[in-house]
Amino acid sequence: xxxxxxxxxxxxxxxxxxxxxxxxxxxxxxxxxxxxxxxxxxxxxxxxxxxxxxxxxxxxxxxxxxxxxxxxxxxxxxxxxxxxxxxxxxxxxxxxxxxxxxxxxxxxxxxxxxxxxxxxxxxxxxxxxxxxxxxxxxxxxxxxxxxxxxxxxxxxxxxxxxxxxxxxxxxxxxxxxxxxxxxxxxxxxxxxxxxxxxxxxxxxxxxxxxxxxxxxxxxxxxxxxxxxxxxxxxxxxxxxxxxxxxxxxxxxxxxxxxxxxxxxxxxxxxxxxxxxxxxxxxxxxxxxxxxxxxxxxxxxxxxxxxxxxxxxxxxxxxxxxxxxxxxxxxxxxxxxxxxxxxxxxxxxxxxxxxxxxxxxx
Length: 361
Fold this sequence. Notes:
- Strand 4 and strand 5 (about 105-110) form a beta hairpin.
- The chain is of the alpha+beta class.
- The chain has two domains: about 5-110, Phosphorylase Kinase, domain 1, CATH 3.30.200; about 120-360, Aminoglycoside phosphotransferase (APH), C-terminal lobe (Aminoglycoside 3'-phosphotransferase, Chain: A, domain 2, Alpha-Beta Complex), CATH 3.90.1200.10.
- The strands form three sheets. It has a five-stranded antiparallel sheet. A three-stranded antiparallel sheet has the order 6-8-9, covered by helices on one side. It has a two-stranded antiparallel sheet with strand order 7-10.
- The chain has helices at about 5, 55-75, 80, 120-140, 155-170, 180-185, 195-200, 240-255, 270-285, 290-295, 295-315, 330-345, 350-360, and strands at about 15-20, 30-35, 40-45, 95, 105-110, 115, 210, 220, 230, 240.
- The protein is built from 13 helices and ten strands.
- The radius of gyration is 21 Å and the shape is globular.
- Helices cover about 45% and strands about 10% of the residues.
């Protein structure tokens, strides 16, 4: 179907003048649609290979955004600008299925705001922490257990380790012998991997609504004030732990090197950026995290980094079947970068914990 015909199935008034590819996302197919009346909308083709249960996916998004709108109104904010709005189809559904069984959804475009792919300043990282902290705060009373698990075991580090060991044992590409050092690095930290999930099972950590992709480019920044306005890309919103969201942001944003840097001497945890993010995140959380959650934030950073490195290495052993690669050792390089970052976190552990205690107050 033509994109304009797809848009015609949604509750949108006006005549569409253009529909063009938009953004740099790798998962869904995203388009910016404009109308004769100067209105803009985001049309997305949902990746059904990754998100197989579209009903569950869209129920999560509609539930969370509906809850957020009420909270934003209660706090005197702008619900049309500070969270996404799912536009229903003309028959009241959350998405449209075309004749080829492709799934489509529509959001209003957030005017006067932009997303960025890289942290350009400490203030950017602070604003990111503030936004994801507010996300935690505003959804603190949402019943996380009612959310669907759209990607099972997404941050189940113990299960990720089991998958890793399976990849090592099968060694389908005969690569295991060449990465014995990296395999040993992972195995040496096996006992820590179930720590967070075990604490949650014992009731020591509360189940939260988590975003699960807390990168800078999932925040919209106001074009005038450059303050964080809205958290976007809610596809991976699921029940989880606050330190998952915190840790993934640190893994991505506080590393002094690129994710696939081959010169490991460039890889380290920037304590300056770590503190900037802690400050913003805890301010945004506005006292909604427990003391134990705050104490475990450094462990969240370590586990999310270790988990990611483990996934890169497992994919390398399996022949690079999941993550896109640009060279033969790309996934291996990525895993080594993550492991180097874990090692630096371990060296700076006491300072990381002290920073979290300092901004808890």
